[in-house]
């Protein structure tokens, strides 16, 4: 069956200019956070990006999410190149592509109830009547297995795992196609991590979601992903099916990453 491509990233670069070390320095140096990266994300897959700290993973996530603009290169959503998209197209993209960040704590307004935070995306995108929004919020809580009593509480009343469930509920509220999960379980205890990863797998099956899954943890990536891109110093050094990456790594950098995985991991796949 022909795979349908949702996102196509073509030769993107993101360079950050470093401050001049002295006032007469002529050439301003730059950090190549992302340096000529290309990949496609297929519908309903989990596409992983793995690499050590500073390899450029989060910068790729922020580029795909349009939080920052590339120095060069193009990102396509289906046939639409994003830099030349009009306002309505970008608004649709912002609805279709949602992000779940690493820290579950900073993302919800501490002074607002969870109900307010879950209703907010509908207000921003002007979707549904008040009754429809309330009904949808109840359904969202069911999806992430949280009780109704969640709604009139505040963020400080929840654990990290519960907050990440709320963030996921918020991210799926507008029925997006793609979730960008940037180290979304890294801040959680291992047992809670497993629960959230299983929740994400269930939601993907139920809602037909596509994931861009970013992590430094090779075990977590192996557990979650269909295809994996390995990043090092702003470049993709290897991109392949997950099984190939683990069973038959081609790049020496991938091999050295794999050799550093702790073997006693709760995520080791038996398949
Ligand atoms: N706004 C910025 N200004 C300057 N340099 C930046 C900026 N954002 C990222 N960088 C640099 O770009 C490189 C890639 O950073 P990035 O955060 O994308 O890596 P990462 O793989 O996600 O690592 P981590 O998991 O530690 O965040 C790093 O050297 C980082 O210091």
UniProtKB/TrEMBL annotation:
The lineage of its organism: Bacteria, Bacillati, Bacillota, Bacilli, Lactobacillales. Gene3D superfamilies: P-loop containing nucleotide triphosphate hydrolases. Residues 7-258 form the ABC transporter domain. This is ATP-binding cassette domain-containing protein. It holds the Pfam family ABC_tran. GO terms for molecular function: ATP binding. Keywords: ATP-binding, Nucleotide-binding, Peptide transport, Protein transport, Transport.
């Amino acid at each position: 069956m022909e795979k349908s491509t949702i996102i196509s990233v073509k030769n993107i670069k993101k360079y950050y200019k470093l401050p001049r070390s002295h006032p007469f320095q002529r050439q301003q140096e730059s950090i190549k956070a992302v340096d000529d990266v290309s990949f496609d994300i297929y519908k309903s897959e989990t596409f992983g990006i793995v690499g050590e700290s500073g390899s450029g993973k989060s910068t790729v996530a922020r580029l795909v999410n349009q939080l920052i603009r590339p120095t060069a290169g193009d990102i396509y959503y289906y046939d639409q190149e994003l830099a030349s998209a009009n306002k309505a197209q970008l608004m649709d993209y912002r609805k279709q592509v949602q992000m779940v960040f690493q820290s579950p704590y900073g993302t919800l307004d501490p002074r607002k109830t969870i109900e307010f935070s879950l209703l907010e995306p509908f207000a921003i995108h002007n979707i549904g009547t008040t009754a429809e929004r309330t009904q949808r919020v109840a359904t969202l809580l069911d999806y992430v297995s949280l009780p109704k009593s969640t709604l009139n509480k505040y963020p400080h009343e929840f654990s990290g795992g519960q907050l990440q469930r709320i963030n996921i509920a918020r991210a799926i509220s507008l029925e997006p196609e793609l979730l960008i999960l940037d180290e979304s379980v890294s801040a959680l205890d291992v047992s809670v991590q497993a629960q959230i990863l299983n929740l994400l797998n269930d939601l993907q099956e139920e809602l037909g979601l596509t994931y861009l899954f970013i992590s430094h943890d090779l075990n977590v990536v192996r557990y979650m992903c269909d295809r994996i891109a390995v990043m090092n110093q702003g470049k993709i050094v290897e991109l392949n099916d997950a099984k190939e990456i683990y069973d038959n790594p081609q790049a020496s950098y991938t091999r050295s990453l794999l050799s550093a995985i702790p073997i006693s991991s709760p995520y080791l796949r038996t398949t």
